């Protein structure tokens, strides 16, 4: 299983970096960056919540948006990329836009991929229900909820915006988490991103 996951992760990275994601309004590089940010947020958060679940949730958070690769391809084939993007751009729940256009969410597509690859049922289901954790089986509801919170804070169309952060923190509080832990993690990540942005601005162009 470890080898399978390593292969899956490697394939996912390659696909993320070689995919036309224009229907979602991002470059493939930006999409990969957002996937990595979601995974890092999960890692830093759940290290303080439940260390036993960290590894699985970290991998799930990194890969949970893979379904968008196939949805993006389908939307382009149907020549609906302009109208799709116009709805994604302003949506607070991208899964509903996906459902309207292709009748499934990216989480459901991702879950089908991992089921086909032979990942265990619990891992598949935590991703499958990440867009609707209230409907998840009890055994995976916590993990599905955590995945949903992470993608709420760092959505592909509005990552780390004030509105996205507040919405995600509210979900965490409603789910019974000590949301101040998550709030501190988000603040720390924002500080790092800001420092990196400032450092890049100060690099001379000839470097």
Give structural attributes.
207 residues, Hypothetical protein af1432, 11 helices
The CATH class assignment is Mainly Alpha
What is the CATH superfamily classification? Hypothetical protein af1432
Overall pLDDT: 88
Tell me the CATH architecture.
Answer: Orthogonal Bundle
Structural class: mainly alpha
Task: List the domain count as a whole number.
Answer: 1
Order of helices and strands: HHHHHHHHHHH
Largest sheet: none
**Compute the gyration radius: what is it?**
17 Å
Low-confidence parts: none
- End-to-end Cα distance, whole Å, is 43 Å
Count of individual helical segments: 11
Helix content: over 70%
Overall number of strands = 0
Q: Proportion of β residues? A: under 5%
Classify the fold: give the CATH topology. Hypothetical protein af1432
Q: Please state the overall shape, judged from the principal axes of the Cα atoms.
A: globular
């Amino acid at each position: 299983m470890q080898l399978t996951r390593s292969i899956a992760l490697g394939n996912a990275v390659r696909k993320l970096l070689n995919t036309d994601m224009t229907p979602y309004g991002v470059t493939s590089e930006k999409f990969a960056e957002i996937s990595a940010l979601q995974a890092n947020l999960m890692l830093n958060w759940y290290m303080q919540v439940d260390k036993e679940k960290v590894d699985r949730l970290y991998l799930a958070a990194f890969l949970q948006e893979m379904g968008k690769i196939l949805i993006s391809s389908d939307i382009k084939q149907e020549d609906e990329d302009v109208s799709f993007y116009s709805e994604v751009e302003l949506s607070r729940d991208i899964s509903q836009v996906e459902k309207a256009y292709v009748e499934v969410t990216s989480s459901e597509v991702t879950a089908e991929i991992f089921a086909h690859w032979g990942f265990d049922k619990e891992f598949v289901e935590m991703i499958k229900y990440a867009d609707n954790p209230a409907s998840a089986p009890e055994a995976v509801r916590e993990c599905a909820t955590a995945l949903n919170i992470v993608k709420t804070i760092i959505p592909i169309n509005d990552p780390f915006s004030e509105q996205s952060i507040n919405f995600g923190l509210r979900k965490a509080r409603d789910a019974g988490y000590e949301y101040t832990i998550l709030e501190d993690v988000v603040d720390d990540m924002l500080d790092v991103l800001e420092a990196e942005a400032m450092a890049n601005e100060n690099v001379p162009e000839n470097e």
